[in-house]
Structure formats: C-alpha cells, structure tokens
Amino acid sequence: MRSIFFILLILSSVFTLTHQQQHQPIKTVVVLVLENRSFDHMLGWMKKSVNPSINGVTGKECNSVSTKTICFSDDAEYVDPDPGHSFEDVEKQVFGTSSIPSMSGFVEQALSMSQNLSETVMKGFRPENVPIYATLVNAYMVFDRWFSSIPGPTQPNRLFVYSATSHGSTSHVKKQLAKGYPQKTIFDSLHENGLDFGVYFQNIPTTLFYRNMRKLKYIFKFHQYDLKFKRDARNGKLPSLSVIEPRYFDLKGLPANDDLPSHDVANGQKLVKEVYETLRASPQWNETLLVITYDEHGGFYDHVQTPYVNVPNPDGNTGPSPNFFKFDRLGVRVPTIMVSPWIKKGTVISRPNGPTPNSEFEHSSIPATIKKLFNLSSNFLTHRDAWAGTFEHVVGGLTSPRTDCPEVLPDVVPLRRTETDENRGLSEFQGEVVQLAAVLNGDHFLSSFPDEMGKTMNVKEAHEYVKGAVSRFIRASKEAIKLGADESAIVDMRSSLTTRSSIHD
C-alpha cells in the first residue's frame, strides 16, 4: 500500500511539474529601454494619486548645499540641458559628503554644472503629464526597487541589459567600441537553444556594440521598426525576444522618442503607447510580456539608497583608473513597468525572492529571467545575472489572462514649446552612436575618428550618416551570406569613400 502511495506521489509531482511547464504562458518578451530618467522624476508622484503602495515621494525629500535647501517638487517639464551622469557625477550625487549612499549630493553636483540645473534635478512629473505611464502603472505593474546596473552613464548600463556585464567599462571606451564588446549575450543563449530574437530599430541598433551581434548569422535579426514591428505583431510573428530601439535623433517631423534630455518625454510616451497598442491588438497578446525600463537615472534625483553591500562583480573585471571600480554597487533606481494580461491590476513589486537574501532587481534581471522563462540550458552569462532577482513569477498569479486590459491608451500632449533644432550639436550619447556607425562604415580607419566626426556634425547630419552606415553594413552582410561566407564572420567595411568590404572572423 505504501509503495502505491509513493508511486502516486511521484506521478503527481511529475504531473504538477509538467503542468506548470506547459502553462508557462509567456512565449514572447518585448524589451524597450529608454534613456536617462530616475524613478522619482518619472513615477515618484504616482504614490499620491495612482497607487499609495508605491515607494514614491511626498515632497519632503530634500538636498541641501551651504545655505540652500531644495525639496522635491511636482512641476517637472521639458528638460534642457542634460544633467550630469558620468561615473564621477553619480558618485557625487549618491554619496554627497557621506560615506554611504545618502542620495544627498544631487543639488551640489548639479550646481557645479549650472545654476539652473539644481532646480531641474529635484523635480518630478505629475501623473497627468506622463499619462501613458499613469495608465500602465494603474492597469499592470510597477517595480519600485529596480536599479541601473552601475552608478554611471548610458553605455555600460545598456551593455548590462543583455549581457549582465559591461566588460569593465564605466564609461564609453572608444577602442573597445571599434572591436565590439566581446562578452556573451542573452541573444547568444537564445540562439544556442534554438529560439529566435529580433531587434526592431529606428535609427541604429545599439545592440551592435556587442561584437557577436555583428556576425553574419544574426544579420537577419535586425529589422526597421517602422517597416516590420507592427506587421510582425499583427501576423503573430514576433520572436521569443523582441528588442525595440527608440529614435535617438531629434528631427522636424520625426522627433527623438528615447527620453534623453533635451528630447520631449511626450514623444517617449507616444512610443510606449504605440508599442502597447500594437501588442494589445496582436494575436500574441495573451502570451506576451512587455518590459519598459530606463538605462540609468540621467542625473535626476531619487530618494532610494543605491545598494552597495554584497553586490557581486560580474566577471572579475575592474574599472579604469583613477577609480578602479570593482562593480560591487548598483546605480540609481530607474522606472520599470511590466505589462501582460497575466499581471494583476495595480501590482507593485519591490524586492525579489532570491536567489540570495540580498539579491536586487537590476538590468541583469532581464537576461536572468529570460533564461528561466524559456528554460534555457545555457549557463548564466556572469555572476551578476546569477545573483539578480528574476520576475517570471509576475505572470504566475492568475489562472487565465485578463480580459479587462485597456485596448487604447490616452493621448499625449507635447511638453516642449520650442521648435526642434536640427542644427544643434550632438549629445554624448549621439556622439557614441555616430562612432558605432563609423565602425560599421569602416570610417574608424580615418584619422578624424572618433572625436572629430561627432564634433563637426549636427543632429540632422548625424542622423543621415548613421542611417547610411547601418543600411550599408546590413546590405553588405546579407550580400556576404549570399556569397557563402561563414556565418561566424563579420563584414569589415572600408571607408565610405568606397563601398568595398571584406570578411573577417
């Protein structure tokens, strides 16, 4: 009798496991990473009027410098110029004069750049000015304890999103860029496991900062967002991982929608609205999870202390002198929203349930969760994604997908009152994108690379240059495949004075 009981118990547990595996509802993860805004700046005031469970702001959060105290207010508007967010800037913002991350140095750091910026960095948006987020936070889920992966700028943090390391970079490293960052990515893991991915880009796929992503075997994974995203969603053809890259250049009639200052966040809201409504109307809606996050805080105030104890170094790399950063603390908290018909309305998630007692949600949580959701046999990418909190459970609380999800989101009103200036110089990030384009184009062999190119171009010229470079690189790569080149090779373009290209491993 006892042996029959044990057999039934084993069969029951096998059935439960199989049943759970069969009923993992998410087959498509869509990731959209926007630029340079902190949690408090974008979502902090939603505590008051959208959901009191959010760890947001009350207006009593202040920073002082000498005789001046500035408290957090709800009158954020169009931002120009861009606040400081280099590794050194973030250190000042986070520590102030303290030995722990007291979040007390934002005003002082901003004042060191410009008198006006000290007010700007201490402002958050009213929910009605970011109506798409207000609706999504109310209808789905917000993470109020999700941090950028390092206390520094855009590129290192973007690298963490898909590879759980920046390979020792705390800033933009031009030499490394030309070669491409060598680390393995979650794209590689998906490919190894026979799963598909796609990068839907608007100006340039910044995922090409990874060397592996330049290989011929991945060239058909890159799609122009305007041509393909809506069509693939409508036809139920979105791959297991769909990455959406915003427009990084601000043009008349074609505004940047990445949220990087000086770009209008209303355009970022419109992009999120478009992505959401496209997914909502797709036959894949009931198996989709949309992740919206920001690469880093962009110099804007946040009141939540950045984790600085027991954060694992991803891969043994150390940052450059003079800081020799050990990658042992996280960056500032950023807005992160998740959308799926499997998510309970108005959910707020703070700390993860493991895998260690001190794990946190940060950008490495994305590859870590994709590994779990799709049951990938590939190893974790680094020690960091092995440690980061995962969010597969966010779609585990319901027995069937919701039918009350909004089909259409509110309209968005522009916040910027001035005309788009296509003649302005490039931001640091746009300059980095131009450098990536120059590598794709073969122009990094020219003596003017990389500093001069970005310095002499305005936004309109940079956009045209980048568009041409990406188009040539993709075309040459597809041509190489037709000619029978090895799929692990990379097309090596020669200077755009000619259109010659060669292939190398």
UniProtKB/TrEMBL annotation:
Domain of life: Eukaryota
Span of the signal peptide: 1-20
Keywords: Hydrolase, Signal
Keyword Signal among record annotations: yes
Keyword Protein transport: no
PANTHER family on file: NON-SPECIFIC PHOSPHOLIPASE C4-RELATED, NON-SPECIFIC PHOSPHOLIPASE C6
Protein name: Non-specific phospholipase C6
Lineage: Eukaryota, Viridiplantae, Streptophyta, Embryophyta, Tracheophyta
